[in-house]
Amino acid sequence: MKLRTFIILALILGVLTACGSNNATSEENKTPDVVTTASIVNEANDFVNAVGENGTWIIATLGDLSIDKEVVVAGEFHDKGDTNNPIYRKIALYTQDEDHNITASFTLTVPKLTVQSENLRIQGGTVKGDVYVEAKGFNLHESAKVDGNIYYANDEVKESAVIDGQVTGTQEVK
């Protein structure tokens, strides 16, 4: 019985030691190199923060969102949050099943959505409002819609865009 108790205590001590903090760790090692999680949002303020410069590479909504002010998508992000991957950002206005089939699509209502992040893709839902694209590589996926106009900062930005989804308004350089 004493041997069994000793073994259990040794295992507990080993687990606690492995899970404990190491005070000798430098500040540099405490900061992760890569953050791969999506920002899943269902509130307007959370969405605005998630698309900002300190946000995440993918922003997924859980329902319709209405924002009564301009929203700016800013910052440089990489696919899956890994700097070894290409520059890429995604707004996912949908939910999906385990096979990646869209199960519900949502609407983002905003007077003006300004895109300053390169290679931003909008997928699976509707942006109701005007989109101002200032960065190259804008992509409107075939499953997405802009219920409004798309304005491009210049011809180069317009030529780099891929518009497979529906746009109810005009697309022009402005």
Keywords for this entry:
16 strands, 4 helices, alpha/beta, six-stranded parallel sheet, 174 residues, eight-stranded parallel sheet
What series of H and E elements makes up the topology?
Answer: HHEHEEEEEEEEEEEEHEEE
Distance between the termini: 82 Å
> Count of DSSP helices?
4
**Percent helix range:** 10-25%
Oligomer: single chain
- Largest beta-sheet details: 8 strands, parallel
Counting structural domains, the number is 1
Low-pLDDT runs:
2-36
Instruction: Let me know the average pLDDT.
Output: 85
Rounded radius of gyration (Å): 22 Å
Global outline: globular
The beta-strand count equals 16
Proportion in β-strands = 25-35%
Category from helices, strands and their pairing: alpha/beta
Structure report:
Strands 3, 4, 8, 10, 12, 13, 15 and 16 form an 8-stranded parallel beta sheet that branches. A 6-stranded parallel beta sheet has the order 1-2-5-9-11-14, covered by helices on one side. The chain is built from 4 helices and 16 strands. Helix content is 21%, strand content 34%. It is globular and about 40 Å long. With 174 residues, it is α/β, with parallel strands linked by helices.
Produce a short descriptive summary.
With 174 residues, the chain is an alpha/beta fold. It is built from four helices and 16 strands. The protein has one domain.
